[in-house]
Design a protein that fits this description.
- It is a single chain.
- The protein has a 4-stranded antiparallel beta sheet with strand order 4-11-9-6, with no helix packed on it.
- The radius of gyration is 18 Å and the shape is elongated.
- It has one helix at about 15-25, and strands at about 1-5, 30-35, 40-45, 90-95, 100-105, 120, 125-130, 135-140, 145-150, 155, 160-169.
- By secondary structure, the protein is mainly beta.
- It starts with a strand and ends with a strand.
Length: about 170
């Protein structure tokens, strides 16, 4: 994602950026390229490229030429969970439908929605993903048993990132 500004010293409007990202998600857009006078905002999302994240909420880092330097990306966590095994005919993953922050329970102190061994149905809520102060309940969309939790409470997640491994049936 890039925002270009050639000469204007106008401050970068983070709220407008958040609104554009929300519109992209709402309408399923993978790229926007906007130009007005000497300003250009170009946004891309999706699995085509991996972008480093800000330390303050998981938004992709922006390159802003002729302006302030881009924020320092977060270092890769070496102790994170291993990559999930590929899907098989009796075991699949539940993936994140959006970018945001993963929460395992409805509120702090409440029990998690699911744990290893939990039986889920198509409409079972398995977690919440918060994106720009909107809390989205994520459902299993399948019948089965949770066999593996692939993220930790409070972790930032990306679009399409595996969250759970489920044994079908």
């Amino acid at each position: 994602m890039a925002a270009e500004n050639s000469g204007s010293m106008e401050p970068f409007d983070l709220e407008k950026l958040r609104e554009l990202i929300a519109l992209m998600e709402e309408h399923g857009l993978s790229e926007i390229d906007l130009r007005r006078q000497d300003q250009r905002w170009k946004l891309r999302r999706g699995p085509a490229e991996v972008m480093p994240l800000f330390a303050t909420g998981g938004f992709p880092a922006a390159h802003i030429p002729n302006s302030a330097p881009a924020p320092t990306p977060l270092p890769a966590a070496s102790s994170g969970p291993a990559a999930p095994a590929p899907d098989t005919k009796d075991s699949v993953t539940i993936k994140s439908p959006t970018v945001g922050t993963y929460y395992e329970a409805p509120s702090p102190g409440d029990p998690p929605f699911v744990a290893v061994g939990s039986k889920v149905s198509q409409d079972s809520v398995v977690c919440i993903i918060e994106a720009m102060k909107v809390f989205n309940q994520i459902t299993a969309e399948m019948n089965g048993t949770i066999t593996e939790l692939l993220v930790k409470n409070g972790d930032p997640v990306e679009f399409g990132q595996p969250l759970f491994r489920v044994r079908l049936g």
